[in-house]
Amino acid sequence: xxxxxxxxxxAVRAKYKAAMIPTDKKNSxxxxxxxxxxxxxxxxxAANKLDLDNAVKNxxxxxxxxxxxxxxxxxxxxAEGLRQVASLPDPIGEVLDTFVRPNGMHxxxxxxxxxxxxxxxxxxxxxxxxxxxxxxxxxxxCILKGGSDxxxxxxxxxKVLRDVLSGEGLDPDILQLIEDTDRAVTTExxxxxxxxxxxIPRGGAGLIRAVVENSNIPVIETGTGNCHVYIDKDxxxxxxxxxxxxxxxxxxxxxxSCESLVIHSSVxxxxxxxxxxxxxxxxVEMRCDERALGVxxxxxSPASNEDFGREYLDYILSVKTVDSVEEAIAHINKYSxxxxxxxxxxxxxxxxxxxxxxxAACVYHNVSTRFTDGFEFGFGAEIGISTQKLHARGPMGxxxxxxxxxxxxxxxxxxx
Amino acid sequence: xxxxxxxxxxAVRAKYKAAMIPTDKKNSxxxxxxxxxxxxxxxxxAANKLDLDNAVKNxxxxxxxxxxxxxxxxxxxxAEGLRQVASLPDPIGEVLDTFVRPNGMHxxxxxxxxxxxxxxxxxxxxxxxxxxxxxxxxxxxCILKGGSDxxxxxxxxxKVLRDVLSGEGLDPDILQLIEDTDRAVTTExxxxxxxxxxxIPRGGAGLIRAVVENSNIPVIETGTGNCHVYIDKDxxxxxxxxxxxxxxxxxxxxxxSCESLVIHSSVxxxxxxxxxxxxxxxxVEMRCDERALGVxxxxxSPASNEDFGREYLDYILSVKTVDSVEEAIAHINKYSxxxxxxxxxxxxxxxxxxxxxxxAACVYHNVSTRFTDGFEFGFGAEIGISTQKLHARGPMGxxxxxxxxxxxxxxxxxxx
Lengths: 416, 416
Hints:
The structure is a homodimer of 416-residue chains.
Chain A: H1 3-18, H2 23-39, H3 41-57, H4 62-68, H5 72-87, E1 95-100, E2 106-113, E3 116-121, H6 127-137, E4 141-145, H7 151-167, E5 175-177, H8 183-189, E6 198-202, H9 205-214, E7 227-231, H10 237-249, E8 258-264, H11 265-280, E9 285-288, H12 290-296, E10 301-302, E11 316-322, H13 325-335, E12 340-344, H14 348-357, E13 362-367, E14 384-386, E15 394-396, E16 402-413
Parallel strand pairs in A: 3-4, 3-6, 4-5, 7-8, 7-12, 8-11, 9-10, 9-11, 12-13
Antiparallel strand pairs in A: 1-2, 2-16, 14-15
């Protein structure tokens, strides 16, 4: 039996126990985890130091090293995250629907845990306690596969959390970490349909593609965002500039940032220069189609067709000119990753058309795309942003990582 | 460009149109389809005759030939099915939730079409109009891949339906059939993630396994059912006998029929002989563990461990003896395909324990497992029974083949 098979069997055993833990107990365990992470901060920071030393050796960029680094204040932040999850309503047991059939069967549709949730992610050791807290509160066991870059940090964090589970009389295998950093093991993990109910990849486009291509477990695809701001002919110019500036530059490396500007031809002469001026504060390069380039001249650079499909995650913005809201919608539906799209307009009719016809998880009117986020939506937590249509779409909080079942009560009904 | 790529591009173009068809129009088109199928019955029956001739040539069993066969009355049944779907409420546009955030964003969660739904199925040409009617009413385009056994029937049916779409001014590519019966084409179809939003296999365990293993499209797994009836120590003996008899024999070849009997040791001496006697009417073989065999003697046959995991779809029933409801739950959770499970008991506490702790789409108390069905649940239609936990579980009607999106309205909100 391979090590992964053992992990799988442990997880299946643990999931039935995880599903039955009462809300109060789950909350007190999460608070205890927060406490113990702070108490054990020194050990965690020491383990993190090993990862950082390796990172330096491997020539990791400063920005990436910063994402990897843990200190006392970051561990306090992690602990606070656990306490917040403890304070959220328990999604499990919610009655979603009840109905009685003519034969007297009483049917209840009830929210239940997913079972075993697998999560594959890169760098950033804070994902480890974060993912555990959400899956645990949602009544599931989890198997985590973090990046090799932060394996020592992850092992230290998971040890603290598993010790709390054991100390509280729970099965520690409710949380398991795959410690083997071999890529072949990750691929094997993706094939563990027999044990894992859903697999959530969190990371770059390459990781997500690999999981989608290789997994036999149902996957929730997360995160790539080629998000558009469309400035309609009836847009308020100041609002348009503010929204583009916020969506493009407020945080450059995230999936809900804007990558492409779509502008109505009748306002391009007026609004494009204002946008250029504002974006200049952050040295944003504007890659323009011919008509937009006609306005900006050598302030812009020419866009290739490829540009309209790119998620830059950088200070670059593609610019496309259209002659109608219909053309804007068609362009966006063609190039979008179906994450977040917004229209800026004072015209109710155009806004409604855009809200209805754009095919994306989150479609906005007069709002920055940056709000596609579990916390901003008030979910109190987030395990990722789904860009697929199956199961969950957009920000995923606790409810989005649950399933349901039917409970049917009768008095001897048989089918005729 | 391969033929499938063209189909994919057609489907994507058609899905945006399908999503915008008003309810009244969808209903009138479905009624028109019903009418035209009846009008064109002769052509459909002639095409079906070609499939039947081939079936005879290929030595298909009489039972399978019967499933394949279409006549006037069966086509009238199909037409009636389309009319029923027309009469169901339109799931699209339903507001599932609304909330306002502290910054004034007004968020609506709204039910939207899935987009492009792929369905792979075997034999039975009635699945073709059935699948079309459900995906169409749910606002999606579909690509159907039926069995090679009924390709001529499918082509004839699809021609009628596409002609109606065109005649009604709609894009006929809302419904497309893959006419190439080469297996390699089916495998290529499973990889069309770029064009297809969800893939639903309907058929035997082998087909479903092939789709799960090969698809890069999100899959909804359907149909395999190793369903249990557990007779508790506090069961009403008459009810127990009736439910076992109904669940096992009322229809032998379906996924919600009972394959395994679990019985409490304290009632086995009394109830097992009654069950044997009743099942004898249908010559059901009872494959028993040692203790059950101790009761039935040579009326039963010995079960191997393998028997407890089998979906017989035949007049065979495995029998397992347990000493508690806890042991019954553990046995069922181990061997179940998580489809439908039932407890027979007059003891409320045991019933609630079973309802809560058994991990299946449908868990019953004092009801036959045979009711796991979209029509029996009152959904008015069914595209299959999901046995996975992602997206939909149990009977899938119109709502279960939709997705959702968020519409967010504001007045210039940006993120700080």
